[in-house]
Amino acid sequence: NSHGAAERRKLKREAERGYLVGVNDGDDLPSIDAAGYITEDQEPNMLEGDYVQAVHAGVPERITGSTLWDKQRDSICTLAEVLKDSPRPFSIRLRRGSA
Q1: What is the pLDDT of residues 17-43, one digit of tens each?
Q2: Which of 25, 31, 49, 70 is close enough to 39 for a disulfide, judged by CB 3.0 to 4.6 Å?
Q3: What's the rounded Cα separation, in Å, for the pair 86 and 15?
Q4: What gap in Å lies between CA 8 and CA 18, rounded to an integer?
Q5: What is the 8-class DSSP label of residue 86?
């Protein structure tokens, strides 16, 4: 059915490009382990095993261009500190884990 095919294409795009989750004032941080992986399924669409690719200043609709943390550039050891100490709102770019 075409709905299932569309959903698979959407998931494939997310797997390749990642997806953004906004963290605003008063929001709880997603549960992320020391290696940068989501530890449990969480709303709206985070799945256990997805991993943090980057953290950006601003909300998903308006990323300000400032990258606060990037998996390619920064140590995983600093991720928890960046998530805890960065001014909100910020956005977390996640990629689907290899499920």
Answers
A1: 789 999 999 999 999 999 999 999 998
A2: 31
A3: 26
A4: 14
A5: S
What is the token pair recorded at 58?
Answer: 């601003």
Q: Output the DSSP codes for 39-67.
A: -S-BTTTB-TT-EEEEEEEEETTEEEEEE
Q: Phi/psi of residue 9, each to 5°? A: -65, -40
What are the structure tokens assigned to 87, written together? 């001014």
Its pTM stands at: 0.81
Please report the pLDDT score of residue 68 as a whole number. 97
Tokens 């390749």 found at: 16
Least confident segment among 2-6, 52-56, 93-97: 2-6
Would residue 6 be called left, alpha or beta, if left means φ above 0 and alpha means ψ between -120 and 50 degrees?
alpha
What are the distances in angstroms from CA 62 to CA 30, 77, 91? 20, 27, 9
